[in-house]
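Ticket opened by: R.M.
Priority: normal
Category: complex prediction / small molecule

The reporter submitted a protein together with K1U and asked that the result be attached to this ticket for the collaborator who will pick it up next week. Submitted input follows.
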Amino acid sequence: MAILDILVAPHPVLKKVAAPIDEVNDEIRQLMDDMMETMYDAPGIGLAAPQVGVSKRVLVMDIGDEETGPQPMKMANPEIVWASDDISSYNEGCLSLPEQYANVDRPSQVKIKYLDESNVAQELDADGLLATCVQHEIDHLDGVVFVDHLSSLKRNMILRKLKKWVKSNAA
Ligand code: K1U
Ligand code: ZN
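Result attached by the on-call engineer:
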């Protein structure tokens, strides 16, 4: 396994719509494993392939905690097939926008269809943090980052702060 570099916004790959996977084969399984290791190392609770420079519809998540233990999830070609009218707000972060946070409103519950690591079609009913996280990761596959859900005033404020962060953290 390998720890991959995580792209920081703005980056053209983070703005692209990622390509669907034909089949979850050994190459995609390797990518999923490397992404999982990269996510745990960051640390984070989710990671989408475009964040590591790969414009493919692949994501990984683990919202497990000390009480539940690890809950790793690997998805290819995830699709939201149903979303609730009910909306929840969560103070989101993003590994591609380090140290930036904002409240984002999203449907509280979603149903997702996807291919698992064995190329088998699965469905997931998600609520709470899992629903927030999977929607955040699917956004990355569509070239959207959480600040795109905010007013232009809030978005520009965060992007200015991020620019300063990048400058002061340059190698
Ligand atoms: O996609 C990403 O950039 C990962 C992102 C996922 C996410 C966080 C919050 C709401 C929605 C989606 C992160 O993992 S940011 C880091 C983070 O939330 C975290 C890090 C360590 C422990 C617990 C959470
Ligand atoms: Zn993100």
